[in-house]
Amino acid sequence: WFHTLQVRRLRVQRGRSNSDPLGGNSFEQDFQWKTGLQFGTANSYLNLEKLGEGAYATVYKGISRINGHLVALKVIRMKTEEGVPFTAIREASLLKGLKHANIVLLHDIIHTRESLTFVFEYVQTDLAQYMTQHPGGLHSYNVRIFMFQLLRGLSYIHGRRILHRDLKPQNLLISYLGELKLADFGLARSKSIPSQTYSSEVVTLWYRPPDVLLGSTDYSTALDIWGAGCIFIEMLQGAPAFPGEADVFEQLQKIWAVLGVPTEESWPGVSELPNYKPEWFLPSEPQQFRTVWKRLAQLPYKTEDLAQRTLMAMPRDRISAQDALQHPYFNTLPPPIMQLRDTVSIFKVPGVRLETEVRDIFSPSRRIKPSLVPLAKCW
Amino acid sequence: MARTGLCDSKPLLDLHKKEKAEERRAPLRTWANAAGPKDRWQPPEGDEPKMAPAKMEPECRWDRRLLVSTSDDIIMGFHEDSRTHTAGTMLHITDGCPEEPLLLYPQGFPGLHSLQALVPGLLRHEVEIAMEKLGLIWDRSYAWDIFLDMMKNQFRSSFPNADLPRPFTDATRAVLVDWLVQVHELLHFQDETLYLAIHLLNRSLRQIKVSTVNLQLLGVVCLFLAGKKEECLLPEVSGLCFLMDNSYSRHQLLRMERKVLCGLKFDLSYCPPLHFLLLSASIARCSAKMVWMARYLLELALLEGQCVVFLPVQLAGAALCLARRVLQEPPTPEGEAAWCLASSIHVGSETALLKIMHILAGAAAKAHSRETCATFIKFSSPETMHVSSHPGLRNAPGLLGVPPLHT
């Protein structure tokens, strides 16, 4: 009970998609204002509280008046000058075509003159909050099922010509059961024939692959795989894999400290990338992952192997999501998990369930079974 | 111009330069220049291993046999398969019944797509290479999945019949499409954007009540929405109003945008026939001229209201077939083998193919004398190898023999 209360309080302070400099300060007035609008226009949903603020939208928690289900309402600011923002159009159009257990479900779209609201399924928390709540690294079994679901979702979108392009723990929603769902497709875009060079500046720096940091605009599915690898390490280690603080060069330096500075031999073509200036980097040799991230040393070798295959400097070397799902690391999961229908959650497979995390900041002494928590939500 | 923030610099287009509208004869074709035919297809002597005719022979015969005798079986098999597949998924989403089998293959039988089971590995290999060349995919491991997805999704993009709601006729629609082709060119949009825009127009004409007065507005809004979905640089709303001689206000345009988005339920996904065309052409090792010819014929199909009942892959196949007949390039063993392989992508009966070819041939023969000649002009430029003024097109219908009875 206490646990959920804390989660809710936390949500108000932390933006879900992007950090909000104002935090919860403008919360009251914003809440009032939006509620008024919503009541006037879309009567079927009731706003409850603000969950976060993104680059072009504000997310509220709401209740559907039709069936009483909790929903997340993403209210998009309408630019009166240019009509519906193109990001909203792309996100809606993409999500309409995506039906998968590991992709957040878009229930409804409410479009009025003043606002555009996407109605999503409500998911209790996200991976960033989950990791804050369970510091010092997650249970290795839970890491495995989160990672499996992340790769399953990625494999699904990559098979449909879609890149997420903004993977980070804040965009991975986690339900009370432990279902992981990819969210925030505002930057995703399905690719069409003329290979357009997308601009840089799309992925949060920590999860950005070295090829993009070096200025490559030739994005591929490997972009998302690097992000997944960083999240994998972060879940195990309890701290970000490459927490660069300032700029692109510092971020690169963090990566080279582990992978070694790439050369034309180790990565053909690297010297042609715009930001490649080897004289700027401190010389560093490739390190063993288990010496950098100590948790890997405590786990079987296949964990380190998967991390290594996802965190390859050269994008072409990185494993695809499809192949990663077949990696021996996932052998310990029940075999039927590999043959599920797209829309079926892995928790339908007997024997798959979230393990209790060893560490919990809210009840350091008591162990809460996560499966009991939703009982507190029967309002 | 408003940047959508997802692209690098493209030349900004000053919409207010009136004379640009007039110089239709020498339009700047940024996209064509940026990725001309040379970049997008390599001729067979590129880095690809040449297809040895001897090696091809058994596969090729296999294909031919299938195409002649059981082509419908493949196709129907695929069709049904895709239908049942999507139907199954839909069912599961809508009611989420627990009785639904959780596993894809409850018996552990892995052969799911009959097409996948039937096609030779060679076709799959060629499709993967072609998709990679065209930049349709990022890495080859997903190529076949994406191709199957394209094949499946196209079934949602054709219409059951070609009837338009009351005040509109194919002629009014053709005039509008012709004008949109010109605006599209003026805005330097990609070709996919045009196909998407016309598809949106076709859908909205059927799903939204629009008066004749607002038809032009609807067309512009469809193009605007297609641009928002696909393009990096967008025109400003005021610029679009200017293109329509300010007959509509910005407010009206935005209201129409809302109406269209709601009417289409925000579903703007579409698999343009152009993708299938380029894919087949790449597999068939077509010459650059042949591809331009096929693209021209395919774009003419946009003007033809009756073409909306056909699948994108059928339109693309017909355009390519007709281009081959018109250009009459001397056959080579490699070329024939590659063509044979490429034609096995086709879905549907040969009658449908012939029907589309007749429509296209008729359109191409008259294109120069019609009022709606923007496409004709566009493809008469040197960049497009003057394909639209090819003498063979004048008697294109004659190449096909007698038209099928049921038209």
Task: Provide structural commentary.
The complex is a heterodimer of chains A (379) and B (407). With 379 residues, chain A is an alpha+beta fold. Chain A has helices at 2-13, 27-41, 86-96, 127-133, 140-158, 210-213, 222-237, 248-259, 289-292, 294-298, 301-310, 321-325; strands spanning 45-53, 57-64, 70-77, 106-111, 115-121, 125-126, 162-163, 172-174, 180-182, 189-190. Chain A has two domains: 2-121, 2-Layer Sandwich (Phosphorylase Kinase, domain 1); 125-348, Transferase(Phosphotransferase), domain 1, CATH 1.10.510.10. Helix content of chain A is 32%, strand content 13%. In chain A, strands 1-2-3-5-4 form a five-stranded antiparallel β-sheet, sandwiched between helices. In chain A, helix 5 (140-158) runs antiparallel to helix 7 (222-237) and helix 7 packs antiparallel against helix 11. Chain B has 20 helices and two strands. In chain B, helix 9 (170-186) runs antiparallel to helix 10 and helix 14 (273-283) runs antiparallel to helix 15 (288-303). In chain B, 40% of the residues are buried. At the A-B interface, helix 3 and strand 10 of A face helix 5, helix 8, helix 11, helix 13 and helix 14 of B.
Largest interface: A-B, 51 and 59 residues
Query: Can you tell me the residue ranges of chain B where pLDDT is under 50 for at least 5 consecutive residues?
Result: 5-100, 104-113
- The spatial strand order of the largest sheet of chain B comes to 1-2
Distance separating the two termini of chain A: 12 Å
- In CATH, the homologous superfamily of the largest domain in chain A goes by the name Transferase(Phosphotransferase) domain 1
- Given the structure, what is the number of helices of chain A? 12
Instruction: Please state the second-level CATH architecture of the largest domain in chain A.
Output: Orthogonal Bundle
Shape of chain A: globular
Report the structural category of chain A. alpha+beta
Q: Give the proportion of residues in helices of chain A.
A: 25-40%
**In what order do the strands lie side by side in the largest sheet of chain A?**
1-2-3-5-4
Radius of gyration of chain A: 21 Å
The best one-word shape of chain B is: globular
Which CATH class of the largest domain in chain A is shown? Mainly Alpha
Overall CATH class of the domain at 273-399 in chain B: Mainly Alpha
Could you spell the SSE succession of chain A in H and E letters?
HHEEEHEEEHHEEEEHHHHHHH
**CATH fourth-tier homologous superfamily of the domain at 273-399 in chain B:** Cyclin-like
